[in-house]
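Prompt: I keep going back and forth on a fold encoding question. Comparing notes only helps if you start from a blank page. Show me how you would write down a chain together with its backbone fold. Please set it down just below, with no commentary around it:
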Amino acid sequence: MGRQRVFITGLGVISSIGNDVATVGESLRSLRHGMLPFKADSPSIPHDLKLVAPVRDFDVSSTDCEDWEIPAQYRLKREALRGLPPHGPFANAAMVQAVADAGLEEEDVSNLDTGMYTASGGSPMLMFRNATRMHQLGPMRCVPTGIVSAIAGTLSFNLVAIFKIRGNSCGFSSACASSGHALGYAWDDIALGRQKRMFVVAGEDLNDESALPFTGMRALSLESDPERASCPFDRKRNGFVSTGGGVALVLESEEEVARRGAKPYAELLGWGQASDGHNVAISHPEGRGLAEAMRRVLAAADLRPEEVDYVNAHATSTLIGDASEGRALSDVFGKQGHKPRVSSTKALTGHGLSLASALEAAIVSLCMREGFTPGSAHIRELDPVFEDLNILQETVNEGPKVALSNSSGFGGANVSLAFKAV
């Protein structure tokens, strides 16, 4: 049996730059960011964080799901809400959007040939507050769903039940590469004929417990000006801006696309992954693992470097991480004398940790269908380390034909995904 081609046929996005695909597209075209002043849930915590990139129109700040405010079209029954983390309503809403966007019927969603892979770091807020309650009042006074709502597999547990998924399912947790791994393994399942359709869903909280620990790592920007706080590739970049949200993508085999007469956003050509083998939290200085991941996806997709015309970079606006990726890009493309356009949309969205890969895969797919390529915002002075790269600073009204999307996580886990316009 030949390998199946894999297409992206539906998208759903709840993000700092919009709560639907159309709004996200408008924000990307105009380089409109989603950052706002940070107000801690616990005023007693001393901190210097000034900005985050929050989701609008939802309020999931309470530890009691009964108090959450969710737009009417995405509301869930109490029994479903009780098992969700704060980012669960984001992911559920994204999934509702993606199913509708792909034109799927109920029988397309729930069957043995349709699976779901998710990515989430869990909910540090619920884990902390549930554990605190246990220590103070005893385990029998804890919420019965406290475990399933807090640990890393929470999205998989909940969404598989809510949407009655009967095919393959698993939750991925490899930090900022999580949803890249989910997309890669979903591609494998369809390409190898194990499944006809896969949902890939990712989500993250945005609250004190999810954001503030990164200030302890010296990873977050403490700037109050958004244009200085999130500026990948800029010489004065000094850390990323935290965001939360939810993203869902529908991946389908070529046979399913033909059977349903679906209109794909893009073809997912394949993926590559490799590890740095260097440090628990810091990228290899020469981008060793990411360069290898890009070489592997080029080989898997039977692409030459010069065929790639755009790279959506992982670049989070950290001093070391951006430089590492820049050297990896120079290694893979510069030696071939090729300079694809490069930008980091995290300058607008903020960095969503485990949901970043899925969000950027959705962005690349949207750009291919809508015919534009977003610039890398907020660059005042390009760092000389990137001078040999084609860093795109303004939006271009031309979509990429072939693109890579990169992700790197703790421990030097690197994923690169390849897309082709259809």
